[in-house]
Every structure is written in C-alpha cells, then in structure tokens.
Amino acid sequence: MLTFDEAIALLETVVAPLRSETLPIAAAADRFLAKPLAARSASPARTVSAMDGYAISGGTEVAGQWFDLIGENRPGAEDPGSIAPDQAVRVLTGAPVPQGADCVVMQEYAEREGSRVRFAEGYGPATHIRAVGSDFAANDVLVAAGERLTPRAMIAAAAADRAECTVSARPRVAIIATGDELAPPGTSAERTGSVPESASYGVAALCEIMGAKVVGRFHGRDTIDELERIAGEALAIADCVVVTGGASVGDYDLARPMFEKHGLELVFGRIAIKPGKPVWLGKVGSKLVLGLPGNPSSAMVTARLFLQPLLAAMQGGTIARQLCFVPMSLGASLPRSDSRETFVRARSSAEGLVPAENQESGAQSPLVTADWLIRRPANSPPAAAGDLVLALPF
C-alpha cells in the first residue's frame, strides 16, 4: 500500500487547472484567480492623514505652541494646499496632507481658540501620515494566481482598481453513492434492512464550499450493468466523479469495475491510512474519478484529505495550501497508533484538541463537533494531554 504522502504526490501529477473565465469583480467572490491581479495605481495615491486631527510642521517639538488654523482638508480634496511652520490645517482621516506638513496631531490633543489651535503634550511620536505607496505601489500583484478570493482577499482585489478578474471555472462534480442498503433520508424507516444514505450529503456540501458545482447526484444498486450505465452518465456531465462505497474487495464492491468499461486508468488504490484504506483515484480521459469509502466518517475524512485538495488544484490552487498541518496541543490523551498512519477526529477546546471517543469509521454523530484531524504517524507512541501534535482543520 502507498503512504499518504506518496498518494498525494501522485494526485499532484494528474490534476490540472480547468479553463478560465473573466468575471466582474463583484461576481468573483470565493473563486480562484487564474491570472494575478495587479494594482492599477499606488495606494495611497497621495500622502494622506491616518487620523482626524490637525496637520502641522515641527513634529513633537511644538507642544503648547499656537498655530494659525488656515483651512480644512476632507477626503477627496483636489488641492491639499500648503502650510508654513506656524500654520495648521484641519484634516479628516484619508484627507490629503498639505505641503510642508510632517505630522498630524490627533484631535484629542487639540485646544482651539477661534482660528488658532495648540496641542497638549503626549501626542507623539507617531506622525499619523500615510505616505504615497505605503500600502502598495502601481503594478504590485495584490492577489496571486491560484489564490482564492476570500472576503479578505476581495478587499485587496477591489483595491487593485480592476473592474474584472480572470478566474478558474468551477469544477463540475457528479457524486455516485453505491449500495443496495442505502435509502434517501426520510425513507429508511419504511424499508427493513436499509440505512439512510448520508455520505454523499457531506461530500456534496464540501464540493460546494470548495467552489465546485454539483451537477449530478446518483444512487447505484450493486449490479454492474446499472453501475456502468450510471458511470457513463456521470462522466458525460462532470469534470470529476466522486464515488462513495464499493471500494473494498467483496463480491459487490464494484466502484472501480463500473468505470473499467469506460477506460479507467488507475492512479492509485489502497493507502496505508486509517480511516480510508480503500480510497482510490483514477482517470477516464480528461476526467478524474475519486473513490471514497462508504462508511460516512471514512468518506468525510478522505474527502477532506483528497477531494478538497483535488478541487483546489482543479481551480489553480495549491494542494500544499489545503494540507497544511499545524502544531496543536492535545487536550486529552491518545493511545498508541497501529501500523497505519491514522487521522484522528477531534474537537477544539480551551484545553486543546480533544479526540472523539468514537473513532469507528461508521460513526456519524462525532462528525458534528469534530473540527480537526490529528495526524498520527504509524506506530506512534501514546501521547498525553499537553503534548504537541500535527493537525489539519476538518
């Protein structure tokens, strides 16, 4: 079996960014940039005040000195004017600073008498002036290609003063749930021997969060003819097909065979991880097929580890960004791990990461509060509360 790192390295070799499209900046939120977004001009474009106050010359050496108040500058003023050493201009935050000023004194320190003003001691040493280009210069790349336009990145994207940006197309994903025992939620209690089909709902939600578009949802019973037909339908409409279940080695585990008729080329299969040993990846032409375990917890763990980085890479993002494990403190002990690398579901707390008590691959209720995956190398010794572990947001 492959290690987790070996499987991810293989995944990187077969995933390529999709086509791109140009959108108005207002319609590009949460998309991945296909081309870098560079600033049209510097910011600030002029020297401006960082505070409401008074622009003067002389810095901090003028406490108690009276200045003649000769005007007021507001944001957007075309002519900032100029001042002599004994003059002051009232300025608002973002307003241009007059020529000759080297300090803006916050209004809290000001005492005004008619058309003159003086300042109490203690207002320095900050000058509260933003110099031209102190945020960024013209043609600086504010958002690089492959970055996602998160709410924070949208601020920088709009600040670039570009009306449009080029983004990667949203991957089209089809999801196939396999298994005779599965029933749509709300109907399982009416059919003896069935269980609610749940894994595909989590997978679909993850796809949408990652910017993909779920274009098809299928349920295939455990017959090869039906599954081959569904596989063909899914491949016809999707860039990526995700299959849950049917990935083990039983007589009715048909997830891979259902694609063989369509020209499946296996990239990897069976990985030395827990949960998720049966996860596999293949290609049918230019289409990717990812097989996930049928057990819901295993499906969600492997979707986080493989599907999320895959979808990011299809949009020009980096796989490494999606698999950034960080040191975290344990809030409870962990037992020795076995011969497979283990990803432990855990929840965050004030004391640190607390592993879920039930780590069974079919356990579904712990997923509600599990927000981290703890990465435990094979044969790791026991860990105590307070120990550092590597973890991934889940």
TrEMBL record:
SUPFAM superfamilies: MoeA C-terminal domain-like, MoeA N-terminal region -like, Molybdenum cofactor biosynthesis proteins. The keyword Ribonucleoprotein does not apply. It is an enzyme of class 2 (transferase). Pathway: Cofactor biosynthesis; molybdopterin biosynthesis. Gene3D superfamilies: MoaB/Mog-like domain, MoeA, C-terminal, domain IV, Molybdopterin biosynthesis moea protein, domain 2, Molybdopterin biosynthesis moea protein, domain 3. Residues 174-313 form the MoaB/Mog domain. It catalyses: adenylyl-molybdopterin + molybdate = Mo-molybdopterin + AMP + H(+). GO terms for molecular function: metal ion binding; molybdopterin molybdotransferase activity. Keywords: Magnesium, Metal-binding, Molybdenum, Molybdenum cofactor biosynthesis, Transferase. Its cofactor is Mg(2+). One of its GO terms (cellular component) is cytosol. InterPro entries: MoaB/Mog-like_dom_sf, MoaB/Mog_dom, MoeA-like, MoeA_C_domain_IV, MoeA_C_domain_IV_sf, MoeA_linker/N, MoeA_linker/N_sf. One of its GO terms (biological process) is Mo-molybdopterin cofactor biosynthetic process. Its EC number is 2.10.1.1. Coiled coil: none annotated. Belongs to the MoeA family. Catalyzes the insertion of molybdate into adenylated molybdopterin with the concomitant release of AMP. This is Molybdopterin molybdenumtransferase. It comes from Qipengyuania soli.
